[in-house]
Amino acid sequence: MRILHILNHTRRLNGHVHAAVDLACAQVHLGHQVYMASEGGDFDALLKANGIQTLAVGHQRKIPSLLRALSRLNGYIRQYDIDVVHAHMMTSAVIAFAICRLRRIPLITTVHNEFEKSATLMGLGTRVIAVSDVVGASMRRRGVPESKLKVVLNGTIGSSRSEGRSEQPKTLCSPSILFVGGLHPRKGLTDLFDAFEIVHTSFPTAHLYIVGDGPLREEYKASVAALRSASAITFVGPITDPYPYMLGADIFVLPSHADPAPLVLSEAREAGCAVIGSSVDGIPQLLENGEAGLLVPPRDPAALAKMLGHLLEAPERIADWRRKSQLRIEHLTIERVARETLEVYSSAMPRDKVTALAT
Fold first, then answer.
1. Most buried residue, 169, 239, 304, 329, by CB count within 10 Å?
2. C-alpha span between 233 and 300 (Å, rounded)
3. Residue 351 burial by Cβ neighbours in a 10 Å radius (0-12, 13-18, 19+)
4. Cα 66 versus chain centre, distance
5. Strand (E) or helix (H) holding 358
6. Is the pTM of this model over 0.85?
């Protein structure tokens, strides 16, 4: 199959970019010809190393820029005789929609950020992939027909991004609590800071590590400086590979207010962390509904503090939840995601086309 992915850019520190890059590389490994059209970024070298040709398509939301993007995308589809186009963000879907209709090829869209109002436009796809059951339910409420909606749960274990990474755990102060993600309100970091302030009174040797970057980094650092527990909170900043921190951490916490299907939970479970996540969106599904990780209500620092204290007061509980993190973890591989996505592609194609590609 000749597959063209289109997304806004290929820069690090964006979950939808990681998901698209992981998927594209896995499809190549399954024997398909894959192209990536975007404004480019950090992952272009990895894509090229995996045999994926990168193509330039702008995503500026201005009429002249969109017209140029339409022309370029049309040219690429014709030049490389593309069988299916897979759009990963709203602007990508809008750019690709008319061309795919004109050329009578399937447009597949993936809803990565369901919490955005513009996610409704992902319904333009011939098939619409939701990254968790909750996202699927949301898209049905927005009017996407059941016949075109498919759920493919996010997973990243075994991805090309993880090849060659360090398997040496980072040495952290123990007991250690870790957050990895973007530093913006949706991730619920203020709840984690408040919870840690409560917990630190009873467990003064506990340490909190914050890995990542975002628009509120300096604001968060300033607010943390006023806490009694400030000396036990470390802002690591953005790093290329946070996996060694996960290997070295005792407890991984994701206190999100909204999170459709965060890839970071696959990585934290792979690293064997005891995991605490807020019970919103796709987080419960990624934690086997509480069997592979502990769930707490969102926006509730007291409940989060109680759960952290529950683990910290008994190290054997942390060890137990480390073991539980491995429950059915094989379902979170990128190979499973790639195979299920290819099935979605086939369902969107005429039967004779599917037969021709299979021979």
1. 304
2. 20
3. exposed
4. 27
5. helix 351-358
6. yes
